[in-house]
Write a structure and sequence with these properties.
By secondary structure, the protein is an alpha+beta fold. The protein has two domains: 81 residues, no CATH class; 121 residues, Nucleotidyltransferase, domain 5 (2-Layer Sandwich). It is built from six helices and nine strands, in the order βαβββαβββαβαααβ. The strands form two sheets. It has a five-stranded antiparallel beta sheet. Strands 7-6-5-8 form a four-stranded mixed beta sheet, with helices on both faces.
Length: 222
Amino acid sequence: MPAPAAAGGPPSVRTAFVPGTRLPGWAERFGASHRGYTLQDDDDGLRLVAADGAEALLQGPWPADGRPGRGSGPLERLAALASQPRRLGLLLVRRGGYGIGVASEGSLLASKAGTRYVQSRTAAGGQSQQRFARRRSNQADALVSAVAQQAAEVFAAAAFEYLVPGGDRTLADQVLAEPALRDYARLPRLAYLDVAEPRAAVLKKAAADACSVRVTVTDPHG
């Protein structure tokens, strides 16, 4: 006889970004929705383990770096850490465009967003495929070079201490390898942001997210 099906579905995982000032309220609502929780402070971050099996992993936007947040408990200290006015350089790039900015306390201090087209892959073969591949490679090279120049101009407008890449990982790495960004590429890098095509609105939201606590909630059953 086949084994009985497991009750419920697989765990449901979702991610949100919560500003430090709103974190205590978020944790209170989480506890109210899941019959309370206990706190566990581990290497991954601050973990809220609820009575019904749900978990929330809270990760600060940046390391303490000798400037820990103040508070009576780990949750208050994490909220204070995330509320510090540290400056971040944002570099978001995909095939269709880019978004570059310098952010602090969730807002953009300097920014630039634009479009740049790189063709998608094709399944065609033969010489047509080879010509397409060369054209696509040339377009990608032009995108990388143009974004690096724009980033150098935006980054020069306001000093910052951390770099936040996002979008297409390969393209972002190629942009940061350009000579124009040599000094910025040496800065500490924070968590990668998975974003849509970088338009002005996407860049604005990325600035807020990069300065917020990353919250990963796992419910026991979907």
